[in-house]
Amino acid sequence: MNSAARSSRSCLAVVLAAGEGTRMKSDIPKVLHQVAGRSMLGHALAAVSQAGADRVAVVIGPDRDDVAKEIGAALPDAEIFTQRERLGTGHAVLSARSALARGLDDVIVAFADTPLVTVETFMKLRAPLAEGAAIVALGFEAKDPTGYGRFLMSDDRLLDIREHRDASEEERNITLCNGGLMAIRGDIALTLLDKLDNKNAKGEYYLTDVVAIAQTLCERAVIAVVPEEEIHGVNDRVQLAQAERMMQERLRRAAMMSGVTLVAPETVFFSYDTKLGRDVVVEPHVVFGRGVVAEDHAVIHSFSHLEGAKISKAAGIGPFSRLRPGASIGPKAKVGNFVEIKNADLGPGAKVGHLTYLGDATIGADVNVGAGTITCNYDGFGKYRTVVGEGAFVGSNSSLVAPVTIGKGAFIGSGSVITEDVPEDALALGRGRQVVKEEWAKAFREKSLAAKRK
Ligand code: UD1
Ligand code: CA
Predict the structure, then answer these.
(1) Which residues neighbour 270 within 8 Å (Cβ) at sequence distance 6 or greater?
(2) How far is the CA of 233 from the centre of ligand 2 (A)?
(3) Domains of the chain by start residue, with CATH
(4) Region 339-358: what's the mean pLDDT?
């Protein structure tokens, strides 16, 4: 999919995920908090893999089974290393020693709490290694450099990175700062890392010190520069919300650039994996959970919430529809207001216009499901299926008690409770018979008024 993925150079990515995250004030580890429907760790793992990493090593804190589980789900081939004590970024990278010792061509170091770094940036970071650079550090022009490491440059060569706490007054005036991510030539990575010490203001093994060490070995370090927002790190919930906003802006832009109409983009929320075809129209205030695909010309009307759903060509959803996992809406089908669909297939051209719940159902082509229809799919223990054949007509306010099958072209009278299968082309009525008493109301009124006058 991209040039680095096709590169002949092998690449190890070391993803640092041992963050403390105390400022999140959360029972969930920081790197598992989500941005656009995926954990920040998941974003980092996806980006490094797409940038061509053949092997991925993730460094996590002690006793983090939850983080290990997420890694297993997101990238089963990743190797997990534990950093027992937090002794600095250099120490964290060295926790993956056995992976580093395998000697891949390129090593990239990524942080699991900077979810906005793109695949392109990781590729940009790797590129100079192929031309002989020992280190490429990722930099940005900081609006406020406080707290960041400063780049000490000589022309386009990076001589050293000075951490804020260790910097002189003069060095603190530098605004070209270290974003933290780095690429290191694989043949030299361990040699550089093994020379790190902790003689600095924080008493930590700084990854950044590999730059000065490289100079002593006559090796060259250079920088790649990206906009500040891309290396936005998340330490608290405010920064998490800022990351979400920036990610949503990216996803909206990408959708529009690929031919999707967003009437009010700022009100539409995407998942990282939302897939929308050409000429899809999304009206204001629509939320996409994970795993939604909408094919060409589908229209999603306002206030709909979609998750794990497939919407076929030219289907119409909403306003106020809820599609839950396993909903599959056929071509030109219509799902209207206050309709919830879960684990159900709706055939081509089928219509479910109003106030309906379809769960565990197969609805054939061109079926009309009347307002207020409910599939009774659950008896408190098991879930059962409802099948409605092609061209059937389900009258309003019907309850379809599963398991039940309604044949092709059958007709269900309004207000029916259907508990038994209905043959093709039959009429089924499952309701009390209507009783009409002529003149009853008039007689009732007269009697009642007379009683009141007494
Ligand atoms: C680091 C850089 C700094 C840069 C800044 C950008 C170093 C020494 N400094 O500083 O130059 O401007 O990032 O945000 O690298 N981590 C571990 N184990 C540790 C320490 C850190 O896994 O022992 C992980 C953290 O979880 C985090 C990342 O490494 O994901 C960066 O660590 P952090 O302490 O935030 O580094 P900074 O001091 O911000
Ligand atoms: Ca930081």
Answers:
(1) 36, 248, 251, 252, 255, 288
(2) 7
(3) 3-231 (3.90.550.10), 258-428 (2.160.10.10)
(4) 98
